[in-house]
Amino acid sequence: MALMNDTADARDLLDIARSTLLNQVLPHVPGELRYEALMIANAMAIAAREHAAGDRPARDELTRLRDLFGENDQPPHRALDAAIAHYNRRLAADIRAGRFDDKKRDALLYHLQRTSTDKVAIANPKALEDTKRG
Amino acid sequence: MTANNIDDPQKRIGLEAFLRAAAGANAVHIRKLYRLSGGAVQENWAIDADMTGGTHPGPHQWVLRTDAAARVEASLKRAEEFEILRVAHLHGLHAPQPLWLCRDTAITGREFFIMQRLPGIASGHRVTREPELVPDGALLARELATNLARLHEIKPPQPRLTFLDTMLARDNVAQYRRYLDQLSSAHPALEWGLRWCEINAPVDEETTFIHRDYRTGNYLVHEGRLAGVLDWEFAAFGNPLEDVGWIFAKCWRFAGKAKPAGGIADAEDFLLPYQEAAGREVPPSALVYWQVMAHIRWAIIALQQARRHLSGSEPSLELALTGSIVAELEHEIVSLTR
After folding, report:
1. What Å distances lie between residue A16 and A25, A114, B114, B293, CA to CA?
2. What confidence tens digit (pLDDT) does each residue in B130-162 have?
3. Hey, are the CB atoms on A88 and B317 less than 8 Å from each other?
4. Which of A55, B244, B314, B337 could join B196 in a cystine, given CB atoms 3.0 to 4.6 angstroms apart?
5. pTM of the full predicted structure?
6. pLDDT in tens, A74-107
7. With an 8 Å Cβ cutoff, are B195 and A123 in contact?
8. C-alpha torsion sign, points A104, A109, A110, A112
9. Which residue on chain A is closest to B258 by alpha carbon?
10. Do A119 and B331 touch (CB under 8 A)?
């Protein structure tokens, strides 16, 4: 069992704020602001999932990117976000130039599939259920 | 979002004077004026008015359509959209009848036009979720299909539509790459989708008038039937199958994910009547191709919308959340091109 904190962390705060918004505030929100209230709840849910995932998706993405370029034996020399941005710029340029058309195509598609799945899991996990069903 | 508030006494008087002159009427009285929902790019205002004399005497329900604060880069000007509606109306398409164009920005602050207000519901969420709105999905799909086939009978050149771009498959790829190049970060999944669309681009393409936003959420359903197609601001000349891929794309099925034709019907319910009315085949490979292109295009529009928020020029929760749908679109592009 995880250690219990004495104060609420970001995820707890977002979760309780969101359920208060939906259960206690929303019933009193006038009709013309209902859409805005639901958008706020959605934004809070996305932020809570992003916080819960931490930097795990980004670290995995970087590992896959470095695999694609065969550079995992070298130590990373950039901060996580900067390294991902760097490799994504390289990857985008190489894809456009056709360097992933043939033998590296499957590796690319594996990477893109994993990366987009991780992002959907944060942005809208319901869509992944739809994909499985559909 | 900063609305261009038209419901101001001064503007109302100006609007009545404009309508009186445009219709050669003795008097125009605006009974009601209110903003219609939807439209981050355009604003639509409902007008209920009475006209005495002139070309349109009697009570009326109109829509005033004008630019929202910020425009999407690829969208047309109001004067151009007005011309397109005239052409659509002349060809007997299901579309609101355009009435008067006002290019004088002194009246409401922006260019606008007045069109007929058609009855019905457009909301994609409702149309795909509430069976009482669409009791017979196949019937609605057939009406959408035959209307689209008729729209694709309009061929270039069109003397009234000389401002329209021609956008065939490779033109789409080139334009989306230019948009991606303007963004601050790289998007490998979209780059892959574009590369795939480049490699698999059709060798021969027909060129017709195309709507480019013909999908659930952009047409009015009234008593289960197609009442009118809205939002003509992205129209162009291009491959007619682009419009078919667009209405089939998963991102436009709303609550009806298992119904490929716009979330309202099975594929055949749309494809068979379209093919028959248009005299044009829709090969399965073309349908996939244009669905991939549809997801790329919508992802790029979503990134542009998100940038309006992120740049600080137009802070908006709606625009910020639009950016969060890009992940789903990329996921679908990867699934379709594996």
Report:
1. 12, 30, 47, 40
2. 999 999 999 999 999 999 999 999 999 999 999
3. no
4. B337
5. 0.92
6. 777 789 999 999 999 999 999 999 999 999 999 9
7. no
8. positive
9. A134
10. yes
